[in-house]
Structures are given as C-alpha cells and as structure tokens.
Amino acid sequence: MKKFTTLVSMFFLVGTFATAQTRAVAKEIASITAQKKTFQSYSLFTKSTSALKNVEVEKAEYFTLDIASLKGLVQKSPSNISISLPYDGKEITLELTKNTTLFDDSFYVTDEKNNLIKYNPGVYYRGIIKGDSNSLVAFSVFDEEVIAVISSDDYGNLNLGALNDDQGKMIKGNKNYVLYSDKYLKPEYDGSFCSADQIPHEGSKFDYQKFSGENQGKYATTKIPTIYYEVDYDIYVAKGRDTTSVMNWLTALVNNMHTIYNNDDIDLAMRSTMIWTVKDPYQGIGSTSVKYLEKFRKNRPTFDAHLAQLVGIDPGALGGVAYLNGLCSQANYSYCDMDNTPVVNFPSYSWNVMVMTHELGHNLGSQHTHACAWNGDNTAIDGCYTLEGSCANPGIPSSGGTIMSYCHLRSVGINFNNGFGPQPKQRIIDFINSRTCITESLDDVCITYHPEYQAVNVTPTSAQINVVLNNNEVTNWEYKLSKFSRAVPSTWSTNENNTFNFSGLEANTYYRLRIRKACDENNINGVDLVFATSAEDFCSGNEKFVDFGGVNTRYIPSENWTRTLMPSKEGAKIKVDFVAFNTEAKSDYLYVFDGVNEEAPSLTPNGLTGDLSNNLPNFEASNEAGALTFKFTSDGSIENAGWEANVSCAVLGTDDQNALVDYSYYPNPVTHEMNFVAKNPFQKIEIYSMDGRKVYSKNYKNVFATQVDMKSLAKGTYLVQVDFNGKTTTFKIVKK
C-alpha cells in the first residue's frame, strides 16, 4: 500500500497570530450571531466507506455528495448557512455568510475569439469553524459541485472537493468527495515557488517610508483593484473541455483568495475572464515561470481591469511570478502554474490559492518577507528562505509563516489565517490607496491599455507608426518624439487617429516615441518606443550600426526593439563588422538573425553581452533577401557604452540564393488582395512590417497560386516571405 506522509507542513494554518485581535471574517460572523440571525443548516454529505485503492493519505475522509440537498441550497442561496462535516473522529461545524463582493458589477467571460460565454456563477460563502475565531473558511457551491478550503490551528488546511480520475482530470458530476489536510499531502514543487526577485523591477515606484496623505495608514483599502484572469488550454482540457466547469473551479479559487484578502481588510474584484478553448500561445515556451509571464505580457497588451493573471498547467513545478508594484503600471501582470498533488485523484486547492494570492501580493506592493525591506530598517521579517539583500537572519517564526513568505519550506508551514502579517498588509493597503489609476468607474478604457505598435513605412527621412488594436476602436493619443541625442520634449503633442506619420527625420538615426492615450493624464499606460530610420545606402560603405546612444553616448534602460538592415541593391547582402561592443554582462543582450525577422536562423543563440573588446564579432547575411535582423534588450539599470559597427554590402553568391525565381505577384502597390502565382508549390506565406513584426501568416498545402487579403493592414511597406518546401524567397510590397 502506497502511503503519503510528510514532516513538512505546506500551509499549516496555526492561528496564534490572530489571538491578539479578531479578524475581519470572524467579526462578520460574530456580528451575525449578535443580531440573532439564523445560520440555516444543510447536510450535503454522507460518509463513505470506500477509499481509493492502493492510496493511504493520513486522516483523509471520504464522502458522497447529496445532489438534491446541494441543488436546494443553490436554489435558495440563503445569506447565512451552517455545514457539518466529520473529520478525524470529530464533527466540524462551519458558520458561513454569503460573499457578495467577489465580482465587479460588469463581470463577464469570453473565449479566445472574444465570444461571450454564458456563465451562471455559483453561491460563494466565507466564514469560520464554529467557536474558533482563529479559523478561516471559503466555501463555494454550484449545481453539481462543492469546493472548499477550511483552515484552523488543529486541522491545518483542509481541502474539500470531488475526486479526479487517474490522470488528474475532473469527472463531471462525480459524487465521490474527499476531505484531507495538506499537512499530510503536499504538491510536488522544487523549493522556491516564486521568481519575482529574479526579474527587473518594472512596476510603479513607491517609497512606503515617505508615503503620506489622507490615505496613509488606513486600516483598510479605500479603492478596489479589479482583476482579469486568463485560463490556458490545458486547464480547459483538464476540466472536460467545459467552460462552466472551468469557471466553477476558477471562481472557487478566487473566493478563497478573496476571503484571505478580505480577512486583512483588503478588497479586490473579479472583472473578467478569458478561456482558451483552442491551443494557446503559451504551449511549451520554456522551463521557467518568467518565460510564461513575459509571453503573457506580450500576448495580452489590452484588458479591461487593473491587473491581469494567467493561470495554467505547465510542465514542471513552475510556481508563479509577478512584477513588484505592478498596479497602475505597464507591468501589471502575474502568472501562476496550477499544480496537482502527488495523488492525482485528490483535488489541489490550497496550494493553487496560495500561489494566486502570493503573486497578486507582489503586484499590490509587497516583497517577500525574507527580503531585507521591512521593520523600518531594511531587515527581514523571517528567515524561511535565503535572504534577499544583506541583513541579519531573524529566524523561523514559531507561529507559522504568512502569505508572502517561503515558510512552506519549513516545518512551521504557511499560515493562511495569519494572512499577510501586519507589515505586508499595511504596505499593500497603502500602495493600493496611493494609486491614482483606480477610479470609481471602470468605463474609462485607460485602466489598462497596452496596444501593439508597428513601424510599417520607414524611409531615411520618414516613418509611419501604427497602433494595432484588438478591435476597430479609434482613439486619441498624445506623444513626444525625440532624437536619440536630444532631450524628451516637455509638452505633449496630439494625434487623433491610430496612425502616426513623421517626416523631416535624419537617415540611419534612432528616435524615441513616447506615447499615451489622451485620457491618460497619470501616464498609467504610457510607453517609450524606439525605432530607427533606414540609411540612404547601406551598401555605400559609409554607414554605421550603433546602439541607441550613438557613438558617444550610452544606451538607455529598458530598451526592447528589433531592427532589420536591408541591402539597397539587388543581389547584395548586408555585412556588419563590430569595432566596439560593451553592454552590461548577462543583463543587456544583442541578438542577430540571418533574415528579415526574429524567426530567421539565429546567429547568436546566447546573445551578445558584456565587454567583447578582445573578440569583436562580425556577421554576414546568407539569406536570399541579404538582410540581417538585430534585437536588443536592456534591463532597468546599468547602461554601458554600447556598440559601434561598420556596415557594408557583399555580393550575394549563388549558394546564398535559392533557385525559386519563377513567381509573380500583383498588384504592387496593393489596395485589397495581393495575387501570388508560382511554378513551384509553396506551403506558407508570411508578411512582416519593416520593424520585423509578423502581421500575417497562412499555411497552404502545396498550392501554386493564391490571393492574400491585405485589406486589414495599415498603409505602408511590408516584406512578404514565401516558403517553398523549406526554402524561402522575400520581396517588398506596398499597401496603399
């Protein structure tokens, strides 16, 4: 018989922290009792004698759900209820009151195509174990399902839910339930479950020590941040490809998280959710949570809430990651990997609630409790993990860890009922109350709006920048354009559509475009874009390729741009010889690709970084277009001198060119459809803007002719790449 026990309690919810004062949820239950209101009793379960074969989890209890009683509860949905459950030879009675603040007033659900999904939420309760004011309960009921987490000193963290199948997937309508404590069954994880300290600090700046004003030191939040959730395809599959089952699972977890926040006088609201019902773009993108966060941020530039959280099931125990102080900034994102227990038949709720609650805590202003950032003297609250910074180790808290700790790695465990602890709680409250992006209404789409920007028509003296939206909305913008060597203008200019046209520019020169929506006076979603004009003639031998700062100035923080160098002559290829290169080692990287975009073969898989003075590289294109593409990223601190390189052209040899010259395309310029005809079969056509961004892609099954619909593309010059059985040809086309 397989037996699972552990000496390390994952989330042992001892309540000694709360003995000094009654917490918010217990106060709510006490008030109901004092008013002599009735807790209507429901009997939802009968004890079952059938346990899982070959599996023994200490003190696990098995039940059969009474569907008729459950449906009666959902239908009547009384304000206050009591539920009794047997556990460890005792009877636990729960006193619960309805949670009516879980959703924003305009809550809705869509799929990946923005189609509305009809969802009838369940009934959500929170409360305590009767007679135990140090306990905490979140209890969610649906037409055919119950999901709950019960936390106390005596029992730890009890998970109540329906058993899964042998692959860890839900069994729709299953009446067989289990109640177990995660003291005796922990999820598989690899130690450090959060990577927030491993990514650049891109969130809002907030000096909590200098924060003052009428909102300082409030005991509760005066503003309500809203959250957009995105659910990956793997969760959709695990929940039987049923959107209602997905939403029941998600809203139950959010009810648990919401209860933890509310118990610390912090309010949040669920604004909207998107479910991937087809394969999502996050499949297999990496082995770290940071990769998923970065992809999420890039893939979801626009959403209608203050914060966005991606939840998924991904290979490996990735844990989660979030940007610190992400609220009211461009970094208002987090990611959570939803893990199963070692017994795949057992539902895992408390671990997933922990990760979701913890990562949002970073977005809302809290660092880890083992960071040297607390107590007014930059010391740590606990020593449950390697200290972040340089300070004395305060040791392990005997009463258990708090939400932002790593005390799940220690025998004391993480204590849900301790909540965030006094200092992280107050910092989150102060941070939320200090943010200006949170208003009384969510009608203002300035809340979160990070559209994509494309440079589609760049010449030596002009550039066209398009704002790419998820819909056809046309909005007003404010912007500041500055040359790399000039100061950013002090005043904003206006643009009343989604296309920016700039003329009178200098050739082969970097420009910085600072852009924000006209309604965005607080610069919540303002962004800096870097683009470069093309050279008059890269084949002249007189042109240079330099970093944004030029030959005599350093580059700037947080750059992220792509630039393609194209030969100005037919049958030529770009050649770049570096004469200087020095970036911040292992932080700022230049990548080189042999082609017209980032999807071309990489010439620098690990990137160029650090001081390369003693080993200066050179690159020469070998693709049919003769182009080289460069991508540069820099972190938020320490900028070195950058680089300088000479650009010239070489003859594109016959080995570099493919023989696929027998094709034609028309018209050029094109207004609506481009016709493409070839004498050899082709398999794919892709279109790229001049800054290397893919704007169109379609696969074919060995066809010889097609029409490409270009009506939706903005006016400008594009690169068209056609795949002939693994070989590509590239040509320019103008959309008018």
UniProtKB/TrEMBL annotation:
Signal peptide as annotated in the record = 1-20
Q: Identify the PROSITE patterns for this entry.
A: ADAM_MEPRO (PS50215)
**Molecular function GO labels:** metalloendopeptidase activity
Q: Which Pfam families match?
A: Por_Secre_tail, Reprolysin_5
Q: Where is the Peptidase M12B domain?
A: 223-407
Q: Which GO terms describe its biological process?
A: membrane protein ectodomain proteolysis
Give the record's keywords alphabetically. Signal
The regions listed as transmembrane in this protein's record are: none
Q: Which domain of life is it from?
A: Bacteria
NCBIfam families attached here? Por_Secre_tail
Write the protein's name: Peptidase M12B ADAM/reprolysin
